[in-house]
Amino acid sequence: MFKFDTPTENKMVEVILDGQPVSVPAGISVAAALLGTGRVISRISPTSAKPCSPHCLMGVCFECMMEIDGIQRQACMTDVTPGMSINRYLETEDSHESS
Amino acid sequence: MKTADVIVIGGGLSGSAIALGLMQNNAGTVILFDEQLPTQRLSRGNFGLTWFMCKGADHPVYAQWSRLSCQQWPEFAGMLEQETGYNVELDWTGGAVQAMGENEVNAHKASIENLKSVCAKAGLDYPVTMLDRETFQELIPDMTLGEEVSGAMYTPEQGHVNPLKLMAAMRGAFQKKGGTFISGQTAYEVVPRSDQTVIVKTGKGDFQAGKVVIASGHGSKRLMASLGERLHVYPQKGQLMVSQRCKRLLKIPVLSVRQTMDGTFMLGLSTEDTALNNRVTAPAMKSQAANAIRLFPELAKVNWVRAWGAIRVMTPDGAPIYTRVEGHENIFAVALHSAVSLAPLAFSTVAPWILGTDQHPLMSNFTNGRFNV
Amino acid sequence: MSHHDVIVIGAGPAGLSAASCLAEMGLDVLCLDEQTKPGGQIYRNIQDAPSKRRELLGDDYEAGDAIVNRFLSSGAAYEDQAMVWQAEADGLICYSRFNKSKQIRANHIIAATGAMERPMPIPGWTLPGVMGAGAANNLTKEAGLTPEGRVVLAGNGPLLLLEASLLIKKGVKIDAILEISPKLPSVKSVPHAPKALLRTDFLWKGISLLREIKKANIPHYKGVSNIQALGKEQLETVTAENGSEKLSIKTDMLLLHFGVIPNTHLFRQIGCKLAWHSDQRYWFPECDPWGRTSCERIFAAGDGARVSGAIAARYKGEIAALEVARCSGIIPEYERDRLALPLLKAIQHDHWPRPFVDSLYVPRPDQFTFDDDTILCRCETISVRDIKKMVNEGVRELNEIKSITRAGMGPCQGRMCGSAIAEVIAWYTRSSPDEAGLLNIRPPLKPIPLEEVAAMDVEKNEGSGKNWLLDKK
After folding, report:
1. pLDDT tens across B261-280, in order?
2. Which residues, 6+ apart, have CB-to-CB distance to C77 below 8 Å?
3. Does residue C408 lie in a domain region?
4. pLDDT digits over A65-74, tens only?
5. Is the pLDDT at C375 greater than 80, yes or no?
6. Are residues C398 and C421 in the same domain?
7. Where in chain A are the domains?
8. Percentage, residues of chain C above pLDDT 70
């Protein structure tokens, strides 16, 4: 959905996303890092069971809520740190895997 | 001037339940006024427990009243769903009160013994037992108990409900049965006439009724005062907290922590004296959060999402007031806390008492005058 | 517990300027900001922006440099990643930073919490691929990200066109710009035009914007209605009605922008009095000319007080600071007025084109969708149909609606749905949105983990928590 203007601009670090180690740019928000690396879905809505994606990117809409280091936080308001554990819980009973 | 057989002033939990009961008992034309004040909506401060456990330890009549109401809950919920399609989310999974340490275990045991005998004298059972830690943990297999939890008192014969859906359901059912719901209009004075009818003055005109029921929460005092009677209620704040939605793990509501059907945990209620100030205070939040974590350590990582305070209508002995206004056969007032637990009785028993068609023997214990000593 | 002269909440132009001014005058100021770097939304990431990006975003963005630099050398204390979750009219604040919450106090609070894009529910707006135009702007500034595929921009307001121009400069393929504002401006705009003409720089900017868009050959529609986002798992098509013509555009991203409204949650949680701006259809904290709200110690500055743009924000932040300095006994009234004079002149100058622009893009009641299936409350998945049902059952007040439907009970606490629900109620009851009331805002302003609450530093600890049932009857 989004691409980096200068791909080498940001230092890359490793985080654990949904149990898998992945490489993402540091120094930006988790939401931006995920969007910029093709991971568009932030969570599955607990009320509609549909996939959600960040909408406002400024901490108002709460669509980017995901579990970051054990706590549900807004991904757009949390910067990437090395070794961070991010869980989106995209596999629920009636959702299918999507990134 | 518009007329009605009965006017109920106050569309909260008690008012709506009574109005519904009036329609159920063929009261004729019933109008339910609800100001919809955004601030003092105490119905929103109810925790949602439909409990009898621990109630009326030094008030046998209240113990009986609570038990009676609780027994009527499942049928009441079923009726509401059938009438309106609203699922009030009654979860009849029992209830527990945790004990932290030996002292609390002993206090709980004493409480059980006391209430057993209080209820026995009135010919009622009190199906509550004291559980040790192991048995309590078995009842809640999906949540780990904190280290300090020594046990709990428990009964299978009560539950919890969604108080907001309950209010919507009762109001909906009331209107379905032909009741008139008027919102956003202030009924500011009740004036009895010599012909035994009653005038209710509102901001948008006067209404005449055969009977009037005052069920306006903290607004009732003012309406009673103009009738020359002091309503014996005082404000008591309760603060509650709600968490994010989680997977449904806690099936049995424990005092001060319950998980609703939509997955949110509710923590509360505190007890404070701040008169009519319902603001949320950080110390209360801290205390409730700490207690919840002592009970269920897994709650530590769960997000607190909302808190609010509401002001209970408290009476000097904690039991409800269902009263006729002094000197006025046809003007009634109701004032109580725990209106969720007592909603079935408001519907099945208080309404017929108001209509004069059926008087339950316990009703005479709930006069406002009992406090005039 | 720490006690400051002033706590400024928000490190955008208003907050930074207010904090700088106060610190320079020698007051003990603490600026708390939620983001990792100062600059707010407009000057997001200005300090670390590479030169290419600065060039792209232009002078308007670079102006933030001076503001941030002034702040950083002013002596004001600054805490980034500090999320204020409760405040009181007497100056008490609860906030969370690095997983720890605490209470602090100030004699005055200047809340410069900014604005947000007006949430405008359209069918399909919850689909991945649909975002705010401001979101794309933020991603550019924060992370140097650009939309990969094709984009449609839809909505209303100068910022929509500004974003279009930015995307054009970045080489993004824009499939269409759908504006709901009418082809011909309303007659009401005419009286405002002369003043706008005084600001030739502003007009020139507007004209070049439109020229750029024309040059790029982007289909640009005006007076469009019934915008919808369609797709199964993600956005696939945008449809709209252009008079009798039906538009259907296959695209990858839909950027929505319907103007900007103040983010009033903090003021409402404190209990400040709010006023309804009937033309621009938003609530804002009622303030005196210095920015003092109905709560004596609480000031509002910047777009969070009234939407006036970044230039006005920095001056208004400073105006509030001057009055706070006077209240704190640091400068007398005449000195305050002397210092305020050039700021007021600057605000006036900046303000000239605003009434004209505002009237061009004035929001209309019928621009809100009333399509039954449209989701209003995204957090709880509550639709227009659900709200209509309540209105039919005699419920008119927002908090009552919230109680019964759960709309507004989710994590965003009505930021995304509150205004739209009020518009729906207003439409169906033929009244004005402000008559539906305002959702009561409760702490915490944003969720925090229970363990953090349990461990927080509070002014006065309460007892171990009375067990209400056990103590009572």
Report:
1. 989 999 987 778 877 778 88
2. C4, C28, C29, C30, C31
3. yes
4. 999 999 999 9
5. yes
6. yes
7. 12-87
8. 97
Q: Which pLDDT band holds residue B39 (cuts at 50, 70, 90)?
A: low
Predicted local distance difference test score (pLDDT) of residue A97: 40
CB contact under 8 A, A46 and B263: yes
| CA atoms of B267 and B256, how far apart (whole Å) | 5
Instruction: Give which of C211, C245, C206, C248 is closest to C230, Cα–Cα.
Output: C248
Q: Which residues of B touch A (CB under 8 A)?
A: 244-245, 263, 301, 303
| C127 and C172 fall within a common domain | yes
Residue C453 lies in a domain: no
pLDDT digits (tens, 9 = 90+) for B94-131: 999 999 999 999 999 999 999 999 888 888 889 999 99
- Please tell me if residue C35 touches chain A, with a CB cutoff of 8 Å: yes
Shortest Cα distance, chain C CAs vs residue A82, angstroms: 16
Yes or no, beta carbons of C451 and B285 under 8 Å apart: no
Closest Cα partner for B156 from B129, B174, B122? Answer: B129
Query: Is C416 an 8 Å CB contact of chain A?
Result: yes
Task: Note whether C40 and C94 are within 8 A (CB).
Answer: no
**DSSP annotation of C330:** S
Question: Is A46's CB within 8 Å of B303's CB?
Answer: no
Closest by alpha carbon to B146, among B251, B9, B292? Answer: B292
CB contact under 8 A, B238 and C403: no
The residue among C48, C163, C378 with the most chain A CBs within 10 A of its CB, best to mutate, is C378
- Chains in contact with A, where contact requires at least 3 CB pairs less than 8 Å apart: B, C
Report the C-alpha gap between A64 and C448 in whole angstroms: 15
Nearest to A71 among B245, B263, B303 (CB): B303
**Across the interface, do B301 and A46 touch by the CB < 8 Å criterion?**
no
Min Cα–Cα distance to chain C from B80, Å: 15
Residue C361 is assigned to a structural domain of this protein: no
Test the B interface: residue of C268, C389, C400, C446 with most B CBs within 10 Å: C400
Mean pLDDT computed over every residue of chain B: 92
Residue range(s) defining the domain that contains residue C267: 3-116+261-331
Q: Given a cut of 90, is residue C460 above it in pLDDT?
A: no
Residue C183 half-sphere exposure, CB side, CA atoms within 13 Å?
5
Provide the residue type at B141 as one letter: P
**A5 vs C: CB within 8 A:** yes
In the predicted structure, residue C195 carries a pLDDT above the cut 80: no
pLDDT digits (tens, 9 = 90+) for C444-454: 999 999 999 99
CB of B101 closer than 8 Å to CB of B43:
no
Residue pLDDT, tens place only, C1-47: 789 999 999 999 999 999 999 999 999 999 999 999 999 999 999 99
In this structure, are C18 and C58 located in the same domain?
Answer: yes
Task: Work out how many domains chain C is built from and give that number.
Answer: 3
- CATH no. of A12-87: 3.10.20.30
Partner residue opposite B301 with nearest CB, options A46, A47, A71: A71
3-state percent breakdown (helix, strand, coil) of chain A, nearest 5: 10, 30, 60
In a domain, C197, yes or no: yes
Shared-domain flag, residues C254 and C147 = yes
Query: Cis link prior to A57 (omega < 30° from 0)?
Result: no
Domains of chain B as residue ranges with CATH: 2-48+164-232+316-371 (3.50.50.60), 95-156 (no CATH), 234-314 (3.30.9.10)
- Statement to judge: residues C55 and C106 lie in one domain: yes
pLDDT tens digit sequence for C206-245: 888 888 889 999 999 999 999 999 999 999 999 999 989 9
